[in-house]
Queue: 4 jobs
Job 1
Amino acid sequence: MRYLTAGESHGKELTTIIEGVPAQLPLTKEDINESLLRRQKGHGRGKRMQIEKDLVDITSGVRHGYTLGSPISLVVKNDDYKHWTDIMGEDPLTEDVKLRRVVTRPRPGHADLNGALKYGHRDMRNVLERSSARETAARVAAGAVAKTMLKQLGIEICGYVKEIGGIRAREIDLPIRERQTISEQSPVRTLDKEIEQQMMDKIDQTKKDGDSIGGVAEVYVEGMPAGIGSYVHYDRKLDSRITGAVVSINAFKGAEIGIGFEAAHKYGSEVHDEIAWNEERGFYRKTNRLGGFEGGMTTGMPIVVKGVMKPIPTLYKPLQSVDIETKEPFNASIERSDACAVPAASVVMEHVVAFELAKAILEQFPNDRFPVLKEAIEAYREEVRCF
Ligand SMILES: Cc1cc2nc3c(=O)[nH]c(=O)nc-3n(C[C@H](O)[C@H](O)[C@H](O)COP(=O)(O)O)c2cc1C
Ligand SMILES: C=C(O[C@@H]1CC(C(=O)O)=C[C@@H](OP(=O)(O)O)[C@H]1O)C(=O)O
């Protein structure tokens, strides 16, 4: 299974094409819309999210609520496009618009300058339109299809916020359903009610100061069978695929599995999870410090992945940069931006991880027809339990 996305931030629409989804998987647009709307929520976002109402149109690959096995295309309209037709439409730019709206001032921390150097664009709008995290709506749409498949295979996934601007959530051990409900109700999508208000205050203060903040999101998965992924080749190691997918999200700078970087200063006896066995579960680990992975394969324990998001680069508080035409230094000033998008990004992270998990499952089991896949996974789970 693979996917491509297309679309500019202020263009007409975003398109996602997913290839390799098995036939006969029950799939409706409500499954996808729920995810899209969740991505739009979260304290700290700017005015753009009040303009958009992300709803999907499934334009191919699904009939009467079931996938066909053919490519699935998903379209999400940009409601903001109507305000940008002179700049983003098909007609040539008028001189007046050129003077007013050509972007020659790169923002530190965004893709503007590198993209201009690479593709030779002197109007950096040609870069920022595609480098914008608006594209994450299209990725969430793909992930929602993957999540729908995983759910029907008994695999549940949830993303939430662990830290915003230095305010950390406590470690709270909850079953997946509670994680889903609690994070959903939280305006900052955290599981820790006690620090929720502090996180919001921090975001509000940062916004007042014209600055931005980042944080840490976590994704938790229950129900993945042991032995998904492989140790035999570098590009089949599922932990590396997942962390790669996390770092591919706009503004994500790192990812860790389980205790991650903490392992650097602990003894082996404090890190590795002891193996146990009982009739009901088969083999399991007594603890889960390694976050559900050993040797690039799932252990059957919950998967725990964290991702760190840097602060948003577009700041009201100006940072120094240099105009690419005049070569004069200037202080960047902006019209609108998110102050903190970690809550929204936790939803994006949930969906990119879901896609990688679903893809790994489809590589390992019969993947043409969903009912056959489901049976094969059930048989495999039983085989592993009785091993
Ligand atoms: C959900 C989400 C919303 C974002 N919103 C903004 C924004 O409003 N302004 C901005 O400058 N960057 C925003 N970003 C981050 C930029 O897209 C990102 O920093 C940029 O593409 C450069 O990529 P890099 O930070 O990964 O190097 C957002 C990221 C995410 C995941
Ligand atoms: C549109 C989304 O996020 C955008 C991501 C983004 C960026 O530079 O990454 C910049 C902002 O866009 P605008 O300049 O139009 O206000 C965010 O709103 C979205 O998440 O759907």
Job 2
Amino acid sequence: MGAGGSAWKRAQEARRYERELREQLRAAQWEVRNWEAASEGERKVAAKLQVLTRRGWRLLLDRRWPGSRSANVDMLLVGPGGVFVIDVKNWRHAPEAAGGHLTAGGRTYDREVEKLLKVTRLAENAVSARNLSPVAVQPLMVFAGRSVNARLGTVRLLGERDVTPALVAERLRLRPSEVKAVADHLERVFRDYEDTSARTGPAAPAPAAPAAPSAAGPEDAPFKDAPFDDALFDVEGIRNAALEAARSAPIEQWMTFLHPDQLALVRRNWSGPARVSGPAGTGKTVVALHRAAYLAARTPGRILYVTFANNLPRVQSTFLRTMAPAVADRVDFRSLHSWAGEFLRERGVASRLDRDKAEGAFGRAWRSHGRGTVLETLDPAPGYWKEEIDYVIKGRGLTAFEEYAPPLRRWRRRTNLRRPHREAVWALYEEYERNRTGKGVHDFNDILALALAEALAHPGATPYTSVVVDEVQDLTFVGVRLLHALVGDAHNGLLLVGDGQQAVYPGGFRLSDAGIDVRGRGQVLRKNYRNAKEILDAALAVVADDSFDDIDGTPTAGRRDIDLTYGDGRVTRCTAATRAEHDEALLTALHALGPEAWPDSAVLCRTGAERERYRRLLTRAGIPAITLEQYDGRPVPGVKLGSYHRAKGLEFKHVHLPDHDAPAAAGAGDGTDEGVVRERRELHRSQLFVAMTRARDTLWLGSVTRG
Ligand SMILES: Nc1ncnc2c1ncn2[C@@H]1O[C@H](COP(=O)(O)OP(=O)(O)OP(=O)(O)O)[C@@H](O)[C@H]1O
């Protein structure tokens, strides 16, 4: 068929759709005429919404608040787009939402908004029994006879004309069976306001009864008793919205439904700093995101959601925008260092972060104060000593040798540093500081230290009422103290989420040393939702012997008790004699998956250099790839390519780890201390464990036999 023919066919379809919608509206208008107790405005809006009931929605009209004798809610609407708590307004003057207030005709109607929010909370409570997150429940004010499309905080304000297309355009959240279960439940909890009325279902067509004027307030004067007309029925808008909704995929199940344990954490009232931990894939980030949305809907302040990695905030922000668009603008997703830099700029504190010049300063310090010292007897390479300065000395904010001297415990460091070693490290540190300050530059740790000093000097200097920290095990002691300083021990102020087993950086700290008390406010999640059993078993085997101390001080065995929920999976081990054969096998595995599977596949490498190597390999083989630095959580074609560090917090259906068991840089026998070697290998295993547990369905492990 030619282009003209298909245009004709589309026009035909559009006309048929339009005819159908108008017929549905007329039928709905007949039905709502019978709802005598409804006000004129409610009936007009209900007629528009009743059209949605032909598209799988359930409309519950005029319901009593649970536990109340007199309070009612105009409508509860449950459908593929979620649950909507609706207050209908039939106002003489046009509503305006500005400066955080709802006004009309010069009067303020904030109490109406508060009332709607209150009943929305009741609906949230009710649907939690069906494991629905509060993000699936939205307050909505609909203005009869008006065209409005605005937001006031979490409340959506829509005109009679706009409401149907807006709801049709919502992304698919509930399946038909879920709509039924949730609506049935709400119907039981929110009883019919008029017990005798049958106003929740279609009624027999009957002549129109005269509309009763509403008594809700001075603005609530009804329109003149006009007959129902469909001028406020936006057929084209509904059609376009339906097409738009059909184009976008349903939102992920976890963005709506939570396990009761997760839901309890999201909704809990904490009297101070709290901690959520648990093994890989147990839904810690899911809880953190729902919690951020929950808090954002309840506090006037903003929420800061922080991770260590630079790429995660983009991805997590995309997730929140999808699952809770109404609050997405009230949550700031930031990496710790970028946030601290911004904070210093805003506060007018001078800082000059220059990684290269700081590296140069350390290089010079090593040459003059490291080489030829006792430090070389433990590890002749400077990297370990740079880590000691970054993670143990500066990361913990130590400023005097006596703080660093024995018996200071160096968490997760395996070398035994006696006093002469520590003196040598301290001399190296001081020289580094002299060189660095001589150049007038800062390193990352300095930025955090400056921000901490500023936050302590001016408490309450940020707009944040809550701070959520994800992957907290990667932060330094100073970083965690900084975030604690922003909100202190306030109720629901600080939430620390993470898993000590997934630490991919050296060093560590204890929350108690940072003055953060989470006793009685800690929860461990145990149900893994991500990994197939085979994959989790293979990953746990890597770290089975590496027990670790969590940041709250709990000693934990490497092989942990985890409940599995996920289905079958596959681990493929490929051992090749040469690197070329190994790479060929990787390409064969990717081609076998095929282009449809590539967007949910990843190739993860131990280092940035390795990642570049595989990027070139994939490009030459014609396999599209995007790096994890570019990925923002939205679906894009192509395989994801990144380092183990960048893959933290993410997941993919298919994960490939080329050359995954290549030996760590330092090995026994090259003069390096046994403790250093042990520590490197342990860190190596933690990183590999993190990379392996990114896989949901299949895991490909490549090895090269090195003769
Ligand atoms: N309630 C749920 N229902 C369905 N799936 C869930 C649920 N909670 C979590 N998941 C699934 O499990 C995956 C892992 O969750 P999440 O990333 O929050 O785990 P995590 O504990 O933060 O993992 P990690 O520590 O390994 O980064 C989610 O992406 C989601 O696919």
Job 3
Amino acid sequence: ETTVASARASLVRQEDTIIFALIERSRFPLNSPTYNQNYTSVQDSILDFVVHNTEAVQSKAGRYTNPEEIPFSTKSLPPSVVPHCPFSQFLHPAAASININKDIWKLYFSDLLPLFVASDDDGNYAQTAAADLTLLQAISRRIHYGKFVAEAKFRENPKAFEPSIRAKDRETLLKLLTLKKVEEMVVKRVEKKAMVLGQDVNIDNDIKKGGKYKVDPSIASMLYQKWLIPLTKNVELEYLLKRFE
Ligand SMILES: O=C(O)C(=O)C[C@]1(C(=O)O)C=C[C@@H](O)C=C1
């Protein structure tokens, strides 16, 4: 059963995934033909082609039967061909209707990507698309994990939340969901993780001060502060508003 503590532990672990995915995407420059619909013979950009077909395989293999996973493809995906794993029914059923992947997608390509890749072209478009998808999936999982955080918070103190949920009082709910101290800790830890995970490791194992990091630690932490935390909180809020539907 998910608790607030175990949900936070999951968010902490997901930081590693996101930072590694950032590092992997920043190995490549922007590679703009990846996103150009006219570059392929399939009327899709390489990105759309890789995203849809990767997700189709994953969908067949059962990935999206897990409520933590939400696909990005705008076309319908084939059903799972594997026996259904009985994931715990922790969330309220309305959770399934909360999906902000469209917003995440737009934000990623318009605001995030240009911050940490060089505006260059090295021809590795398929690899670039795969790296984009991995990072998008990690970001989406983190943000939508707000459903689990919100449910855990609600279950630990239902009386604190119920009146504002029934009154649809967004402002009070947001206050109840916000812990400034926790947010500051997340942002600081992400910056440190980007330093530790993004350094060159050698046998002597000394952390090189002032060395070059594989992804700018201040960009990683800014990404959390400006987008990931506010959007996670927003998912928490939207989830709670549907908690009694
Ligand atoms: O840890 C929590 O309590 C959360 O709700 C998660 C989170 C986050 O996104 O990291 C969001 C809101 C809180 O203000 C603190 C942190």
Job 4
Amino acid sequence: MLSQRQAPIAAIATAPGRGAVGIVRVSSPQDLTPLIDAICARQLRPREATYLPFCDAQGQAIDQGLALLFPAPHSYTGEHVLELQAHGGPVVLQLLLARCMEAGAGLNIRLAEPGEFTQRAFLNGKLDLAQAEAVSDLIDASTEAAARSAGRALAGALSKEVGELRDALIKLRMLVEATLDFPEEEIDFLQQADAMGRLAHLQARLDAVLDRTQQGALLREGIKVVLAGQPNVGKSSLLNALAGAELAIVTAVAGTTRDKVSQTIQIEGVPLHISDTAGLRDTDDEVERIGVARSWEAIADADVLLFMHDLTRVGQPAYEAEDKLISARLANVPAERILQVFNKADAAQLEGLPDGALLLSTKSGVGLAELRQRLLQQVGWHATPEGLFIARERHVQALKRTREHLVLAMAVASQEPPALDLFAEELRLSHDALGEITGTFSADELLGEIFSKFCIGK
Ligand SMILES: Nc1nc2c(c(=O)[nH]1)N(C=O)[C@@H](CNc1ccc(C(=O)N[C@@H](CCC(=O)O)C(=O)O)cc1)CN2
Ligand SMILES: Nc1nc2c(ncn2[C@@H]2O[C@H](COP(=O)(O)OP(=O)(O)OP(=O)(O)O)[C@@H](O)[C@H]2O)c(=O)[nH]1
Ligand SMILES: [Mg+2]
């Protein structure tokens, strides 16, 4: 690992394809002069763009571009970074990258792994882990709200919240550890230092951060919504209405949809990955049967199951019989994940419906706005995107573990007599869990997992 880290790396740092300008960048702990001499044929002033020809091994110009040298440690990675800003065609950039590999052979240069520039920035203390993840989330953001929130996380919004919790935790730990050294004072400590009061305060702050982090994770991961129900109830019509486009075929024929049709839309910046599925029924049609099997798979995988009823058929014996069969099979889907909606409100009489039933007409648009709100409510979205930072499920889990150990510490402290060493240990475990977010305590394995999901050149 270490020797790998020490080799210079190179990659095309702009998305492959046609762009006006493209960048090949090199990051190296060693001095890059030999490579610069070979390609740029002159010295570069630090952090100053120089317009020059990029030379191949024969001294022929590959392109005319800007060379930019960031000497260590004042660069993105904290190492020496050379940027060759060229014309953005894929072939010229590949040529330039190949030229860097050739000219850097003596330095043992190799191609960069995905995320390796940012990983080096992390290892050299330029970014903490939460910020490094935000770099990737910024690039991958699928909504404007997600991009803005990733920008805030990159600027350190999550790190700052975590840092404040950490400081409070460290203060408490210092008090406890000091007391451990003077066992005769143990009994008084918890009262004198108001350990319980501090813990309660810390927990309240942690809960606030956890809430914001959960909202940030929703913004990043989005929600998997599956539209299901009997054939012909209007599932595909709803997908089209939500997406604002004719994505799925709609006909009056029951059994129109066979394959799952998926589309990501956004509501208040929260990405919703919506899947329309084949109507649920027993059928002799082989293709439709496979479609229905896929519907059930999608249902099992849904964050929210939007189960649709057809008001023009509710109460009819055949419809109700089918509904019973389906309901029995739905019994193992947690009730809080299911949102029941009643469609075709424009064409039916509306008596005898359950209280709070969500009425809809994909035809007239009635109930759509309410449905959007209910979808967000269902997954616990209550934030306004302004001021939010993007986060990941990993951060949520680490905060939950931090909280668990705080709660255990409180339990220990309220025993008679309190076991101060156990109290100290729970605080330490809480501190460790918190440290996983910014990467103070993170296994190599976790780091590998995180950075491998980046795009190449980042
Ligand atoms: N051309 C180019 N544009 C880019 C990047 C890049 O690597 N190259 N970035 C890549 O992601 C982002 C900018 N990130 C950067 C982060 C730090 C430094 C840097 O030079 N840091 C020094 C000096 C800081 C200062 O002067 O305040 C340092 O940290 O010491 C440069 C770019 C977006 N735009
Ligand atoms: N009156 C009325 N008709 C609707 C409404 N929504 C859908 N329909 C009609 O109901 C029929 C079935 O609509 P689809 O969207 O194809 O239904 P589906 O649930 O996807 O059907 P399958 O793919 O066969 O499972 C079509 O003729 C639609 O025009 C509505 O709100 N009101
Ligand atoms: Mg359909």
